[in-house]
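Collaborator request, handled under Task 6.
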Amino acid sequence: MSDAPEPQEKKKSIASLLFKALTWLLSAGCFYLVYTKIASAASREGISVLQYLQDFFGGVNWWLWLAVMIPYSCFFFLVDTHVTWRAIRWFNAPSLGFTKILPIRASAYILALVNEQVGKGAMSLYLLKTYKVPGWQALSTMIFIGIVEIYQLLIFSSVGVALRFDYVQQASTLLPLDIILPCVLVVAALYFPIHFTYFRGYIFKGSRLREIGVLHALRNAKLWHYPLAVLFKAPNLIGAVVVYAIALNLFQVDATVGQMLIFLPLIFLAAALPLPFHAGALLLWTVLFPDYPEVGAFSLVMHTFFVLFNALIGVAFLPRANKELFG
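Structure tokens returned to the collaborator:
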């Protein structure tokens, strides 16, 4: 009888390996498609891919780029921490102080270099040790924040689509984005009322799914929590729209704030796909800017700097984080 669970564990292990293999294959396919586009552009100019990329990066004013990226990364950290702090106060620890969560959130950026879920585990450990918040309850708050992030991206993208639908039509050369994007926005708008009324218990009252522990925050979230969390997070996305528009022009890519308002939320959504190296976002950049296949390399540079600088912020706060976590 004791050996009965082994076949089930083996099945889970095989499924996990297959999933990882699939994600790596998809990522390899994304990188290959981006490479072929860059190689094609280099061939048209009669130079090698390496020379093409050297020319692309060689014309950048890197000091000006750093002058834009470093302040934004610090700003992002403060806004991101503020949103996390608010959500934890709403659903887990009402007495939590903002300065207390700063070092924990910063140190999570270091762990996120390995795995973002491990980074969230640091905050869960702090809440468990300091406020006796169960791990599943802390995780539920992270789920709430994740849903808010998705809807924030969709809301901003919908504003951009409404204002400049011609940009979407111009970018619909490889994918019918002028059809896909409005459909996604409509489905998301229709889902939210169902989501809220279900988790508040107004519909399907006999359902037990909402009682699962990790959905604690969704059960307790009032209607005003959602728009307020979106507003708290909005400065980061607005800042990203401006920063990416400036950075693209520094890399000699013709881009406007209007384009970024529409496209950047979609790129961030693609980056959330479980693919190594954010391969989904890498490919989407080249889809949205077909005249500039080198933007795939641009996206890698931007993402790498961002995660490394955030980790550097985490290193600065690490002594305080260790004191908060381990005394």
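The cover message to the collaborator said: "Residues 61-326 form one domain. The two ends are 44 Å apart (CA to CA). Please let us know whether this matches your experimental observations."
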